[in-house]
């Protein structure tokens, strides 16, 4: 397959178009799916946060930190999406954490390196993306307030591990389906283009035969509409060429007959001219003979005249 052939250009162009469409659709689907999954994960985290906040409110007021430690440990073990659960008191000290090593430390120390501390305004839930133990985690926090008094803070770390794995599987499936669609599309383009090229090649062969003088060639009028129209135009052109050629042949035959008659007339005129030339030559010869005879008569007369003169002279003496 030549790179500059019509077949190659059509197939490559079609493949590039399908590939571009697949890239756009895949990217759009991936982004939409990612946002939808992240939204679902965030909503689930907010539900867990509200539940933990309700439990923490009662226990923080009673300073029952032992129960809170047991609760956060069980919650983290039951919910795979939780990387950690932490509860702080009003003084910013971590009183319960799913990782017990961090209990008793200040929240500023426990926070991920480089993460800005959470500043609360009212009771709004705050979110930020941090790195926890090398993984991407969404930290959502909410203050625990009782009768307008803040008793502490509840923090949940929602991990993206399952979400990222789901997205990777989805991307792989989309890529596989996209490649399958691309292969099928290229195969379809190959079949369709092959048929069109076959019809065009047939037209090309017929055109070559016509250019070589084979005007009896008739192009099959089949294929796509445009190719059929082109074949019909080729056949009409061939028919017109045959008609013109027939007229030329008729004109040539007429010209041959006219030439033959004209040559006959010329030959007859030439024969007549030859006869006239012969007659003129005979007349000329006769005239020359008469001229010679006249000159001779004149000479004889002159001789007689001289003889007569001499005779007179002799008589006189």
Topology:
Elements: H1 6-62, H2 65-78, E1 82-89, E2 94-97, H3 107-110, E3 126-132, E4 135-146, E5 149-159, H4 161-211, H5 225-316
Antiparallel strand pairs: 1-2, 1-5, 3-4, 4-5
Q: Could you explain the architecture of this structure?
A:
By secondary structure, the chain is α+β, with helices and mostly antiparallel strands. The protein is 69% helix and 13% strand. The protein has five helices and five strands, in the order ααββαβββαα. The chain has helices at residues 6-62, 65-78, 107-110, 161-211, 225-316, and strands at 82-89, 94-97, 126-132, 135-146, 149-159. Strands 2-1-5-4-3 form a five-stranded antiparallel β-sheet. α1 (6-62) runs antiparallel to α2 (65-78), α1 (6-62) runs antiparallel to α4 (161-211) and α4 packs parallel to α5. The radius of gyration is 60 Å and the shape is rod-shaped. The N and C termini lie far apart (136 Å). Residues 113-123 have low confidence and may be disordered.
Order of helices and strands: HHEEHEEEHH
User: What is the tally of helical segments?
Assistant: 5
- What's the overall geometry? rod-shaped
Strand content: 5-15%
| Class by alpha and beta content | alpha+beta
Distance between the termini: 136 Å
Low-confidence stretches: 113-123
Number of strands: 5
Q: Provide the helix percentage.
A: 55-70%
Radius of gyration: 60 Å
Q: Kindly state the mean pLDDT as a whole number? A: 77
Strand order of the largest sheet: 2-1-5-4-3
Main β-sheet description: 5 strands, antiparallel
């Amino acid at each position: 397959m030549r790179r500059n052939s019509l077949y190659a250009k059509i197939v490559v162009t079609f493949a590039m178009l399908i590939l571009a469409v697949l890239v756009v659709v895949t990217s759009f689907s991936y982004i939409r799916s990612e946002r939808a999954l992240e939204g679902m994960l965030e909503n689930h985290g907010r539900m867990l946060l509200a539940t933990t906040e309700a439990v923490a409110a009662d226990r923080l007021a009673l300073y029952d930190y032992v129960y809170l430690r047991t609760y956060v440990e069980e919650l983290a073990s039951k919910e795979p999406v939780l990387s950690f659960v932490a509860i702080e008191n009003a003084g910013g000290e971590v009183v319960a954490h799913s990782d017990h090593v961090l209990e008793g430390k200040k929240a500023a120390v426990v926070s991920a390196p480089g993460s800005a501390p959470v500043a609360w305004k009212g009771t709004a839930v705050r979110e930020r993306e941090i790195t926890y133990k090398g993984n991407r985690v969404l930290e959502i926090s909410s203050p625990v307030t009782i009768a307008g008094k803040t008793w502490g803070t509840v923090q949940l770390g929602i991990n993206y591990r399952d979400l990222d794995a789901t997205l990777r599987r989805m991307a792989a499936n989309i890529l596989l389906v996209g490649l399958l669609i691309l292969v099928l599309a290229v195969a379809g383009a190959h079949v369709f283009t092959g048929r069109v090229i076959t019809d065009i090649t047939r037209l090309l062969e017929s055109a070559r035969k016509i250019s070589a003088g084979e005007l009896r060639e008739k192009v099959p009028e089949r294929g796509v509409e445009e190719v059929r129209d082109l074949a019909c135009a080729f056949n009409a052109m061939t028919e017109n060429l045959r008609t013109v050629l027939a007229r030329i042949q008729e004109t040539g035959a007429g010209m041959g007959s006219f030439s033959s008659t004209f040559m006959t007339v010329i030959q007859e005129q030439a024969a007549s001219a030859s006869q006239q030339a012969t007659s003129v030559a005979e007349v000329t010869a006769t005239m020359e003979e008469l001229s010679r005879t006249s000159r001779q008569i004149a000479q004889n007369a002159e001789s007689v005249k001289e003889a007569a003169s001499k005779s007179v002279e002799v008589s006189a003496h």
